[in-house]
Design a protein that fits this description.
The structure holds two protein chains of two kinds. By secondary structure, chain A is mainly alpha-helical. In chain A, 69% of the residues lie in helices and 0% in strands. Chain A is elongated and about 80 Å long. In chain A, 44% of the residues are buried. Chain B is mainly α. In chain B, 73% of the residues lie in helices and 4% in strands. Classes of the chains: A mainly alpha, B mainly alpha. Chains A and B meet through helix 8, helix 12 and helix 14 of A and helix 1, helix 6, helix 7, helix 11 and helix 12 of B.
Chain lengths: 339, 325
Amino acid sequence: MEPTLTGPDTAPMGASSTTVAAEEGMPPVRKAESKSPTRIALIRLRQDKVAMTCAVIAAIYVLIAIFAPLLAKLEGQSPTAYHMDMIDPFGYPTIGTTSDHWFGIEPRLGRDLFARWVYGARPSLIVGATATVITTIIGIVIGLVAGFVGGWVDRVLSWFIDLVLSLPYLLFAIATSALLVQAFGGAEGAPPETVARVRFISLIMVLSFFGWASLARLIRGQVLSLREREFIAAARVLGVPTRRVLFRELLPNLVAPIVISTSLALPAYIVAEAGLTVLGVGLVEPTPSWGVTISSATNYYRADPLYLWLPVLGITILVLALSLLGDAVRDAFDPRTRR
Amino acid sequence: MLLYILRRILIAISVVAVTLIASFALFYVAPTDPAGVLCGERCTPARYEEIRRSLNLDEPLPSQVGNYFKGLVVGRTYESGGTTVECEAPCLGYSYLLGQPVTKLFAQAIPVTFSLVLGGAIVYVSVGLLAGVFAARRRGTLFDRVTVGVSLILNSIPYFIVALIISLYATFLPPTQYTKLFENPAMWASGLLAAWLCLGLANAASYTRYSRGSMIESLGEDFVRTARAKGLTERKVVYGHGLRAALTPVASILGVDLAYQLTNTVFTETIFGLPGVGLMTLRAFFTFDLPVLMGGVLVGSIALVTMNLIVDVLYTVLDPRVRLS
């Protein structure tokens, strides 16, 4: 499944541009530089200063997440080591920002805040990216099948899509998390590492379960109109197998909606991950995560503002950059704004 | 029209029914052990069996389902610690942890959520409309561009961050608490003010954009030119003719948003400590109180489906161009 899905991004783009030209009734002009819609969109994106700034910021976050161990080693601290000697009897740290602890230490347990901050970028990005990939693949497959096969398959799938979209997402997320945590043995009494791992997996599952439906609906609608076009009819007359028609003929024409929805979904999942974690439904200790830090830092926001504001700023800037980038991607790919 | 409404009601009922069956199946058939959770750490086998019996977990599955549906329609009784508890007609189960019927718990929580969502809506609709109309009339000026830019950025900041920061730092606002409206209206309003402002300001950004776009469109219509041509004052043109036409799309978005917010106030309720549907469900998550969790999901589904139905029907009334099929 994977290679077929990633393949059309590169290989059959030329085919897609000729079909677009053919659809608009223009003679197939074959100059040396015929640009595919995706190429045009990427060129427009590259000229967008806001988009490029946001992309750089997002790339920095990815680098921080990848090189978190290195950064922590550079500082000489670990995200899990306790420094109880620097905690006064009331639980407050006796030091501020020092050359040993660049962002200071946590109240109560005295763990290093810089190390926890750089490691905290990891769960956000991993959960967000995994949920995005899973929902995109499920959404594409369900949407393609529902739109292309039609008949009772379409009716069943559409009904299911409508059902998922009409569920109260957050309440269901809370309830299913409870269930998954119980079912996977993450209940009380289990060792903290197991609980943390179970929570991690169940969070991704919950986000994935509720995320695929809107993309599936979008793809289904597009496929419904595309499958009546001549190039699909031609492919079928030529006896091209259905799978090839789906992934080689249809999918390249769906690149724009897929890219748009993916780029808007990523920040949404990162927000959802952090939000559910702050509520206590998502990730838990000992995972170093911004959401976990925020929820414990609210008790110390006056005494130790840095403790609260570092993860808050971390998540806000990341989400802001990704959302603005997503908006720019949408503008670049939207055929209505094509110049 | 009647046929359309009937069909929509049927679809709505089917969604609620499927939600009910699915959540029932998930909660009671899934490999979880609700009796064990209730029993706690020091659990004797006798106590465990008693809890299993009181949850009806020892009965075969069809009879469990039957009992649940019977409870929904005519009510049922529960045994709790030797006493019998009457659970009246729409009985969603009985919370052994809280010692109360679930329906009663939610009957207390729903007004809180409603007050929160409606008060917030008043704030964001009025702020959003004012700013949107203002920006639309000065389209292209600095004010317009700043408004659009600020609303774009505000919209991208995660809501729970905004709520958290407001709840922590806006201490000049009256402390948040819930008082019943009919007990003391002044206390009700002042206790909810901070949460209203939070919900309102965070959502005002998108309403500014909606109403600005809608207003620009309607100000470009022929009837606005006609209104100007016949010599109406600018105020009458903008508010009497332009705004009136611009309200329809905003109103339809508002309906969808209200439906969404009724089931998504978990963050506001948790951060401000308001005992609404969201906070109750979240607490049930921590205690693994299955009947309450199920009740929360069900109440949310019903609210969402009902609101969507009302919005769809109202939309056909508001906008005569929408034809029913």
